[in-house]
Fold each of these.
Amino acid sequence: MKALLIFLLLALNMHPAVAQNYDRMRENMVRRQIRNRGIDHKPTLEAMLSVERHLFVPAGQQARAYDDGPVPIGYGQTISQPYIVAYMTQLADPKPGDRVLEIGAGSGYQAAVLGEIVEQVYTIEIIPELAARARGLLRELGYDNIEVLTGDGYYGLEKHAPYDAIVVTAAAEYIPPPLIAQLKDGGKMIIPVGSPFLVQTLMLIEKKGERITTTNLMPVRFVPFTRRN
Amino acid sequence: MSKRIYLSVGLLSASIIAFQLTLMQLLSIIQWSHFAYMVISVALLGFGASGTLLALARNWFVRNIEISLPVLMILAGISMSLIMLVSSTVFGSFDSYLLFVDRSQIVGLVVAYFAFFVPFFFGALALGLMYIHYIEKIGPLYFADLLGSGIGGLIMLLMFWLFYPAQLPSAIAFFPVIAGILILPIRLRLKFIAPAIAAFILPGILVFSPPALPVSEFKSLSRAMNLPGARIVIERSSPYGQIDVVRSPALRYAPGLSLTYQGTVPVRDVIFSNGNWFGPVVEWTRTDTSHFLDYTTNALPYQIIRPSNVLLLDSGTGLFAAHALTRGVGNITAVEQNRIATGLLKNELAGMIDSMYHLPAINPVNLHSRSYLLKDDNLYDLIILPTSESFGGTSGINALEEQYILTREALDEMWNRLSDDGMIAVTAWMDYPARNTLKLLATLVETHEANSDLPVENHLAAIRGWGTISFILKRSPLTLPETQAIRNFCNTMYFDPALLPDITPGERSVYNQLQDDEFFEYIDRIMARGREDFYREYDFNIKPSTDNIPYFSQFLKLGRYDKMQDMFGQSTVPFLEIGYLVVLLTFLQITAAAVILILLPLLVIGWKGSGKLYTVLHFSGIGLGFMFLEITLIQQFILYFGNPIYAAAAVLSGMLICSGAGSLASSRLSTEKGDVVKILTLVIFFIILYIILLVPLLRITINFPLLVKIFFSILFISPAAYFMGMPFPLGLRKLSGINPTLTPWAWGINGCLSVISTALATIIAVEAGYLWVMVIAAMSYGLTLVANLIKT
């Protein structure tokens, strides 16, 4: 049934006029919301142009898919604002041969963007319904290099560790020790930290040998608190 | 007129106040308290709107009063009982969480306003209709109204214990239905028997099988319940709010945990209050020799002292108590005002924490932390304030929560409770732009300067992890070995010192880089002389809060709002301080609506004619003045009793009942200028007396036994409240003599101004302090006085 619905959804979106419209919206999104705000990482920009964001939002919300903001996807979760996705991707600095771990698959959109660039993405989602939805959609869209797992992201995924980058999309008041352990030497972790239900700080964690350093990047709540001086 | 009408009025008024309190709790559970405040404020405009409709259609309502009055009461009851069903519909598609990012949610907000407005509108329409029709009995009628309201508030304290929030609207709905049936003429009762039975059955069904609460999917509780294996293990309903204890193998807590921590982050139960995070219950046993808090910046004070006596303010779920026990502290006083939470820790959840609250080393105190400080005379080696969850990183949701433990006066009291080498410790989440971290530091610095002549830099230390910053203010100067111990701790944990007597710029961000180095520049300016200039220049209000303006988490400077919008963008600014913005937004909305509601009747009753200026001045003045004083007294008595719920109930009910008595006594008074002027002069006199004497008298008597304090507070409130109950009925009686068509208009003006005054009082308290709220209360009664001196 779910596969049928996804097929219908895809079929509907293949209507030339509608598809062209989304294509134009996506180009505008990348130009106005992402490139104009300073994101210049070429693979990220190409991936954001390529991934059809409107397929990752609930059917009733598709018209808002390319808006400059988050869109609710149910279970108290949102698909992040396009700029946040691009910003986190650029920071992770993904490269073609990389192995990336994502914690908090949500809609699967961030994983799809990463999957366009790197060799393998593992993404863990704690809410089974969201995980199933993301898994089905990513499979339908042909992302063979993305594996969606259902579980508690706290433990990471030791089986495929270490990772070149770990992207955490679910906020916590702590940085899970297992995730730090699973980061490759020279690897980067992007994680929103702080009280999970309110304002969080996006943070970059870098591992160089035994030394671990953190950099506060920006506060986020739906949208980043970017300051224009 | 049947005597039953007094009982009917009392029941209706009791139900309206009970319904208001219930909605406040319900909407706080379903959504958030600031949203509840906004919706209820707008809904209460039902009082103003009832006056408008009565002014426009007075004759029709009066002609049909036999039917219209009971029907309005029954409709009020039915709409109250339907509120849960309506809520399910409204909140199915609307969420206030998305209001500032999705403009389409505004439609839902308007629908919510209307849904919650209806019961108040019907109830107020019935009350207003009685007042204008039975004007000669206004004194006893208003007495019954106020007495009913006072009792309604008290009944709710009991009902919050007995019923779950979802059941309450329907339980309350019986009161107005009974009130309506009571005054239904006997000859009409048979005719109305079927609708009356239906009116009883509906709330009856909904009490026993209430619909599920449509809690926002974005609330902490909803999101916790989405975790695998999550379940509610304990549920409690009380005036303190709805308490839920959630258990899940994926619920973990370790705020700001060091990156060097190799252990497992502990799984814990979490207590939620009204669907919001209250605190974690982390497993602890007496044999524990280490605690995960040892790996956080919270462990800072323990690096330099081995305290014997520790005072924990707002101790919540006992995490700091467990940490102190692990550190070998022998005498811990844990002050927490939420009795339900403490009760759970002592009983149902005792197994998780090895009955910690029954250990001789722990002295749990159920009181407001500030009230405890005012009563206490022990000395402590360490006083720990709660972590920032309660006052930081909250998008300003708590901006308008009075935080009496973070005022300058409170810190002075803490300083005086310190032993010779004692210290005050506090941890906060790092925030950007920096606000609460800077205000905390400013408060500590000013506290030291007010109590010591020694240089503050030798008494303050701060360390910063990747997410949190912890401060200590030590009574004696920090020694070299102590600062070395702090540095060693930082190096071990990958933390960075932010303040030390001999700090060097290079050591401030070795492990944890910030967005920019402005934060260090700011803290240095606060440490230096001339910080007042910095307070003025800085874009946020970081001047320490005081008992007069106790809003620690209020940072927004209204004059800089445009600048903030330019800097952070339109969609971001609301999240810098949502609490205060909601009040400002509420004030603007209700003022605009009130102006329309007040002006609309003039289309029918005409713009000219005698008594209009008198009506506006007299009823605006008492609408504003009464509420301003009531709000201020509630604030003062919160500290006095050490419990906000019972303080509010005592003051609110005491004032209403005493005012009711005044209203009753006003029947014997004439509406001549002389009597009214004397009464208003007395009211103003008492308010001035409160301005001068209230705080000192409450401080002197704070240690008296509870019963004496209750007696004292009623004695203190009653004279002013008694006289404050007179101007409304006297004014309406006088108006009916001048121009009876103006009486419904007066009822509407009074209703509108009472609603405006709640938001306005908050804005004045934030911008100028409670003292000014009282001064303006006196000035408002002065306005009423002027109205009575003008020849009508």
Note: Confidence is low (pLDDT under 50) at residues 5-17, 222-229 of chain A.
Amino acid sequence: MAMTLTLRVWRQAGPDQPGRLVDYVAHDVHPDMSFLEMLDVVNDDLIRKGDDPIAFDSDCREGICGSCGLVINGVAHGPDPGATTCQVHMRRFAAGDTIVIEPFRARAFPVLKDLVIDRSALDRIIAAGGYVSVNAGGAPDANCLPIPKHVSDQAMDSAQCIGCGACVASCKNAAAHLFTSAKVTHLALLPQGQPERARRVVRMVEQMDEEGFGACSNEGECEAVCPKEISISNIARMNREYLKATLAGE
Amino acid sequence: MRLESRIPGGPIADKWDKRKFENKLVNPANRRKFTVLVVGSGLAGASAAASLGELGYTVKVFGIHDSPRRAHSIAAQGGINAAKNYRNDGDSVYRLFYDTVKGGDYRAREANVYRLAQMSVNIIDQCVAQGVPFAREYGGLLDNRSFGGAQVSRTFYARGQTGQQLLLGAYQSMMRQVGAGTVQLLPRREMLDLAIVDGQARGLVCRNLATGEIEAHDGHAVLLCTGGYGTAFYLSTNAVNSNVTAAWRAHKRGAFFANPCYTQIHPTCIPVSGDHQSKLTLMSESLRNDGRVWVPRNPGDQRPPDQIPEADRDYYLERRYPSFGNLVPRDVASRAAKAVCDEGRGVGDTGLSVFLDFTDAIRRHGEDVIRSRYGNLFDMYTRITDENPYKIPMRIYPAVHYTMGGLWVDYNLMSTIPGLFVLGEANFSDHGANRLGASALMQGLADGYFIAPYTVANYLGGTPLPAVSTSHDAFQEARAAAQGRIDQVLAVKGSRTIRDFHRAIGALCWDYVGMARTAEGLDQAIAKIAELREAFWQDVRVPGETNNLNPALDYAGRVADYMEFAELLALDARHRNESCGGHFREEFQTPDGEALRNDEDFSYVAAWEFQGVGAAPALHKEALAFEEVHPSQRSYK
């Protein structure tokens, strides 16, 4: 049973151009379509009519690459908890619905076109310290370093972040604390991360501020939309790590 | 031109050591004077860029994504093999080597595979040192599992996200080098051509996908780490932007393409639900450890699965392969699924799926245990299909997953163009005609962390490389060629969408060059591909302009290349008159339907040289010698 829907989509020709919401009618929307497949069909219609298709990023379409990211009816990644935009299916909507589609908005995420944004600020936060400094070639045998299973599992919970930026888009301050703290926590929990533990958190937090992300005011919106359900307790840990590092004079 | 595989002499276990010693070195103080251009930022590209940056070379990394962390290696689920023998169950470098050569149906180069098995142990050490959170046991040591039917437990994993964690490890190491200034990132760039000066790869031309600008970059060597060509089939488990463009354009400049007909169809994917579908989702084959595959015994049985009694079910893998059962290798499981669907015994609305049933496993272990093993996969299945696999059997069907073929490389991973190296899935070298589970991640990282740093250094240190800049004619010509092709595709202004053409080329590939191939079908396919290519250039409609962000234009360029590449895929399949691994020709099978190799006539690598679009490519053969593992009929009965 195909549905007809109205889409209200953010269109913006380029980074320095004004944008606006434009209405489109989506016909023959099948409940088994994914949200992005629905947009593919709408775009093919626009192309046939000679209109400019709606630009959006997507790649793996199975919720792991972090490329896609739309604000659907005001919610980053849309109505399904623990899911990315590409995993949302049209059975979540009813015939006749109007769906508002916008890009992830933040000062640090400039719009390039329509729904496509520049998230390279997140890469620069990682470059500032989100790693363990080991060169290829010199690593000791992997089993030299026993790590308790619960510690490793907890590190993995944080390491699952896909870097989509939904946490930033949903935060009223456009803070990148959930993203940054997930990496700080992953590496702070593991023995491999200890030598650079203090330096890492200070440099990553400073880079986060420099990129123009806002401050955290503990609203918890980030955790609510995170497709990997990363806990806000990571932010508490990052704050503690940062405080300890700065008190120690890092 | 004669193919020089440059395999070192001596016993197989010493070949790599010997090569490393023979290799030229580059003085640490001189390394920054060499620029290496790395195309692609998946496991192979990110690990190569990080390692070369650590050594002090000047590295530029190009990728089509907004961030290097999004490359499709991120989606690998199952795990990574390594011959650590941590389980004391009889594994060794030699056994991993042996299994990989056999699993590849004796169509891989022994020396490369042996080196891969040797490197596997270093990879795990490297990744753990980076902080990759592999699964662990309560005692704190690393956990392993048996994967894809292997008889030893040598697979390391990080939940169902091993590819993600390994890629993030490599990405973080690379970002450390970005911070240190040795690596420069160029995201949203698509390589469109290679610049060759005096026969050497000296740079590339790419499109800045954010601005539309055509850019030229010079260097001393180019590393293609651009993945496989699975999206030639339109529907595959690959990401929607995965493509063959960089490899194909290098092929058109003189890099030979080897064994394109070796494509892997993965047996456990979520079936197609309709025409709108843009990709297929893989369900890790670890599911076959506990799930039982079956279809109704009688064609046309429309009863819901829980109302079909045992007597009316056919557990066809357990029946045909009593010793391996549901764990037969991927190619065997996929063909068996196709066979039962061809008999009209497939299930679901389309009749193109089979059941993967966990009822017995849930009865035996309880739902909680099954949830702890596969919870995330079951959730993903529910999200896509709206069905609950704890209650109703999953439905699965094979889908294109991985491509063993790729650009031909010698033992040093260098293509037939001096200075052009090819790493990871983009090359052809290690998996023969079929790749074993958990071996793709191993190869990407072995090539990038541990092989390219030595062999690229040898090339840079031992080759006269005169100064060249992007003002050289070769760059101007490549730039004009790239822009010309863009202008040409925009100028068609026809009536059919790009996706329409992609679907059509994909359907041709799937129907004629998919799981089962015939000479007759391939002849038809070759003619139809040429017709479709002509139709594409007459009737495709590409919106927008060249001078800004235009995803439809990027897509059109990739599909245009598939219109040419698909012909080579079919030609290679047509010429190989045998069945082996992922290449199954119906004319060549044993009486009980298994792949029948012809070692007498086809124990070689087919490396194709481009002769022009629509012109027959020239075939060059690299003979394969098996000194260690003696080819035999694979048997999983």
Note: The domain at 473-599 of chain B is CATH 1.20.58.100 (Methane Monooxygenase Hydroxylase; Chain G, domain 1).
